[in-house]
Amino acid sequence: MEYNAPAGKNLFDNAKVVGKPTRRIDGPLKTTGTAPYAYERHDVVPGQVYGYVLGAGIAKGRIAAMDVSAARAMPGVLAIVTAPDTKPVGKGMGNTAPLFGGRDIAHYHQAIALVVAETFEQARAASSVIRVEYERQKGAFDLASAAPGAPLDTTRGGEPDQVRTGDFEAAYHAAYVQLDERYTTPDESHAMMEPHASIAAWEGEKLTLWTSNQMIAWNKGSVGDILDMEPDNVRLDSPYLGGGFGGKLFVRADAVLAALGAKAAGRPVKVMLQRPLIYNNTTHRPASIQRLRIGAGKDGRISAIAHEGWSGNLPGGSGENTVQQTRQLYAGDHRLTANYLATLDLPEGNAMRAPGEASGHMALEVAMDELAEKLDMCPVELRIVNDTQTVPDEPEIKFSDRNLVRCLREGAERFGWANRNKTPGGLRDGRWLIGMGMAAGYRNGPVGKSAARVKLDRRGRVTVETDMTDIGTGSYTIIAQTAAEVMGVPLKQVTVRLGDSAYPASAGSGGQWGAASSTAGVYAACVNLRRAIGEKLGFDGDAATFDNSRIAVDGGSFALTDAGALSATGEMTYGDFQDDYSVGTFASHFCEIAVDAYTGESFIRRMLSVCDAGRILNPVSARSQVIGAMAMSVGATLTEELAVDKRFGFFVNHDMAGYEVPVHADIPHQEVVFLDTLDPVISPMKAKGVGELGICGPTAAVANALYNATGIRVREYPLTLDKYL
Ligand code: MOS
């Protein structure tokens, strides 16, 4: 058995609630602005005061002197916490740079002081009179000059990250067509709407952080670690998040500084990282340089494929795995994939939505478009002939469920791909150049152990408690659907409580594992509650049918309320099925674009994604995930770039005016189709994630559409208009 589901029964075969289009139960709170975000939790503890973060003004070097005396004398100031002279604090799980620098500065805007005052304005004013003298050192800030000669990345598992199968070089040279191109992607910011924010309060030894965080159980431990205290004395509460995208996977400076500030001031302290600080203080998706070499036969079959990626990070930081999808997506006997990692002194690179794959597709899927053109072949057909049902480098490993070809065919048909103008730059509509592009997409489909508690009250209401987070994704709703289904109650009879470390530990929100994992944990808890009800009323809970707030058993029936008040916890755990199967999600993506022939400005006309991701738990929230990811893809392709100041080592455009993120209004028509697939091995939910699949490939579909419209192939992202003039 791969997971601990009760034998002989699949509760979702005739599902009434799971898989049905369901409006978000937190929707009214969100749309009326009344969902309480971390910084707005005015009512959780009285006497809250404000912290303002001071970031380092150099990228690399030392603090020679810091004078806070003038700041201390400013009105309203309660405490000033400065980085300790000796050792920096606050690395914690998953981070590379200390969250609170010591004498040594690791990157620009690393936090070096927190001013606590009665009001925000007082804290800000006082921070502006702190005098800091730095000894600046030279740093490495340019990936292009650091990349040549960079060693193979060893940050994932300690081994050099290179996989060779067959003889790439020989097969490449013998191939009928060859492609050898380089692509670059820039540093990108999560730029989520809700900044990182925390309120900290101490009660003796115990610390509570009302915070904005994706991973509660991880970070309860991490806060304990950073502050050198028992994790059991730490409570994290994060019921609503205004986006995370990986930027809130780990503890960040707001949480650590709020805790230290609250201790120093003897008052609860709230800290929101100021927007202009976020881009350099927190993490980002690292820039990449990628080289693709592909050799193929006349029929389009790939005989040789090499994908090499270069990225950079702070010393000790990990590299961006841009070749990940290339190890899964296409057949080909002779293969080389490798990641190289350079040392840079820019702010820390870390996980951002589909880390690795999001940028990897921006190279691989454009290279496939270029290869199709060399072969005079349809780009959809090229991908179909190179499909595989086993992992190319490890043929003994099968995909648990892979329907990429169906995605490609269905997408081509629905989008009207057959009508595409095949001559790049050859279709004009008044002042507009029109183009269509497509790409395939892959993102892995992980699951992780996840627990929940489910309570039944005397009125037959069901309450679910788990530390799962809803980062804007719809967790509340799919968890309510799962509990309603398994307990056989209407959706409105279910209450869901999330994000509190006092609840059972879930898998959290990351790596697009959240939906599949957290609902499986709720399923496990509900199965245990059914058993507990059966035990109380004298039947086998696994054999009974729970429906319509009633329970049918052999030779009788009960009302759910007959059970009285009961509660059960459960945890879904997993065997090692991922040794035998590669569990992935697949998609085809299509885009039609119009480019102003005079100014070079481009406008998306329509986009389509066809997704193969197992059971779709809620087509409404799943669609929202994908259309949001499509919009983020448009940003990655057309506008988003953290501009590096290569002299001083920081990101210049550190606000939402300079870092341009598209909105849905920029894309008039988005369509998402989900194949009705069920993953047979992943969990009893048979569901996989879509939140990161949605950003794997639409980027390249946009880039390929731009080429088809203009006849100009630009390989340096973002594809801004100046590159087409
Ligand atoms: Mo994701 S980048 O694991 O939130």
TrEMBL record:
SMART domains with a match to the protein in the record: Ald_Xan_dh_C
SUPFAM superfamilies linked to this entry: CO dehydrogenase molybdoprotein N-domain-like (SSF54665), Molybdenum cofactor-binding domain (SSF56003)
Matching InterPro entries: Ald_Oxase/Xan_DH_a/b, Ald_Oxase/Xan_DH_a/b_sf, Ald_Oxase/xanthine_DH-like, AldOxase/xan_DH_MoCoBD1, AldOxase/xan_DH_MoCoBD2, AldOxase/xan_DH_Mopterin-bd_sf, PaoC-like
Example of a GO MF term: oxidoreductase activity
Pfam families found in the cross-reference section: Ald_Xan_dh_C, MoCoBD_1, MoCoBD_2
Domain Aldehyde oxidase/xanthine dehydrogenase a/b hammerhead residues, every copy: 32-138
Name used for this protein in its record: Molybdopterin-dependent oxidoreductase
Source species: Altericroceibacterium endophyticum
